[in-house]
Amino acid sequence: MERIPIIRMSKFLLVSIQVDMHDRLALALQEDLTAKINETNARGVLIDISSLELVDSFIGRIIGTIASMARVLDAETVVVGMQPAVAITLVELGMSLPGVRTALTVERGMQILERAIGPTVTEGTDAGPEE
Amino acid sequence: MNTTGSTGLRPILERHESTLLANWITAQKAAPTYRPDLIKENELRDQCRDFLRALMQAVQSGSQNVDGSEWQPVRDLLASISRSRGKQGFSTTATATFIFSLKEPLFQLLQQEYANDPKVLAEQTWATSVLLDRLGLYVTEVYQQTRDSLIQRQQEEMLELSTPVVKLWEGVLALPLIGTLDSARSQTIMENLLQKIVESGSETAIIDITGVPTMDTLTAQHLLKTVAAARLMGADCIISGIRPQIAQTIVHLGVDLSGVTTKASMADAFILALKRTGFAITRPTAGR
Question: ipTM value of the model?
Fold first, then answer.
């Protein structure tokens, strides 16, 4: 079964959804991501959905629950690059995803994550999000 | 009946053309729908003469079928007359009267022609009446189409005219709303704004509702949906230009705008947007 790759970037996790989400894929992502946050002690999760052109209420809810679960695990979630059509669909479905941070681009999303996490206890050489 | 219908009209049109034309124009001028302010008598006379000539040719061809190719010139002529009347502002009745007023003078001539043969007279009257009715209906139909297309074009123009998204600053968009927001318009507005947000990568959008005359729950809901959709994409919306009456209405209606930043004027909203993007406006000489 195909899976959505989760990339680790210092203290953040990157998820880029490049394929059409179907329900099982979304559930698998939810499971993988929570496991990965736990495993890597990630402080932030960035989900890029700029290639996602179709959503239904289930996918919308999964995005919301992923954000809530990540918060429970002490990681901030930012959803970036939502397409206008997707945004309209979600709003029409009555899902405005309260509690999920959003940003226009990956770059802005990263800035938001860094600001949200704030100064952390580092080991002197904080490499930052460049890789 | 087909052949008698044509042969009956033919001698009249051929022999009494000028009488018919004069009587017809008199009848049109006598009608209560006559508008000398909209159409000149010369123009009317030309139209009538052209129509009678085209009618004569069509009748001479022997075909009684108004939809046939022999009647094409008549139909074209009527269509152009009807269209110009529609644009000049004539009413439907006035436009249809153009054809229907031909009945009386034509019937008078028919009566003279067939005075000693009542059977033929009745037949001819019926055939002519049917013919003119069809032409009259055709005129009305074209008139209606002209008006419909006019209304549709105006609606489309209004839709385009009313949804400009302007860039105020790097990362700040403004959407001045003017006029009543219905579902179709607010859909277009929402799509336009979201598209522009993506294209320009703007993080702040100011929706100015100074030009929105009334606010009801539906309008408020459309606004809130737009704001929610923009937020999902990562952009913040500021609603500005809320007039006192509208503020009262919003509260009375119980619309919850607490999740949205609102400002009284566009200027206030712009200052806030600049602050959020990290800019500030200062007067170079002042403050020193």
Answer: 0.78
